[in-house]
Amino acid sequence: MVLEIDAAAELRAMASRMRRTALAMTLGAGPHGAHVGPSMSIIEICAVLFGRVMRLDPLNPYWDERDRFLLSKGHGALGLYTALAEIGYLSSDELRAFETPEALLSGQPAMCVEKGIEISSGSLGLGLSIGIGVALAGRKAQRRYNTYVLMGDGECNEGTVWEAAMAASHFKLDRLTAIIDANGFQSDGSCRTIMDMGSHEAKWQSFGWETKSVDGHDVEALLDAFTSPRREPNTPLAVIAATVKGKGVSFMENNIEWHHSRLSRAQYDSALQELTD
């Protein structure tokens, strides 16, 4: 799909605001720090889904026909929170309270459907199984909603992911989409070194999924992957999104030290300058 120039620019602007907000939340977390690196890699994915693709209504958060977004890689919480704020689920006060005592928003998401957070996550490898249940429930209730599960490439080391992948194909869940945030890193090193998965596209295809590989920071390519007609009927879709951990801030990019860390004021100012230049 070719986006209108204004629409593409709008999504890029949304992603830029989300990155700046994520930085501010990391700074505000103080000694707690935040999972800023794995959040920065999913910013465009979340911007496209929440800003253009999914059917949602912040004024009616329990709407039965709403699309469901499940953040399986809970370490990307800032990507989810900033997207929810952009479309009206979360207030600026709630963002500023991130990681403070009694705050709604914790370092990894805690389920709060009223605020757009569909599941609690952080224990990796579980989101796709939950997504299958959500998709099956929608089919049984004759609902037309779509279910999107955002996972990490490191998370795909978990055996539960592949049991779920088999089940989704078996049940022909054509309203289920898995997005693989393929940034090449996990919490303690490079994915290739820790557990080389080879070709994600080939693996998901072999489990009976339609697959699309895209630049995970290209809003037009992402939108096309999510909305273009499907080639294979009655199959779930896996979108393998090539991304950069810490995207947008040079000292964070592909740097495992920023999987979870604290920002000093000087680092924040430097990062913000990069994002506003």
What's the helical proportion of residues?
Answer: 40-55%
Which strands sit side by side, in order, in the main sheet? 1-2-3-7-6
How many angstroms separate the termini?
29 Å
CATH superfamily label: Thiamin diphosphate (ThDP)-binding fold, Pyr/PP domains
Number of discrete domains: 1
> Over all CA atoms, what is the radius of gyration?
18 Å
Largest sheet: 5 strands, parallel
User: Structural class per helix/strand content?
Assistant: alpha/beta
Number of strands: 7
Number of helices: 11
CATH fold node name: Rossmann fold
Extract low-pLDDT stretches: none
- Report the principal-axis shape: globular
Q: Any idea of the CATH class?
A: Alpha Beta
- H/E element order: HHHEHHHEHEEEHHEHEH
Mean pLDDT: 96
Report the portion of residues in β strands. Answer: 5-15%
By CATH, the architecture is named: 3-Layer(aba) Sandwich
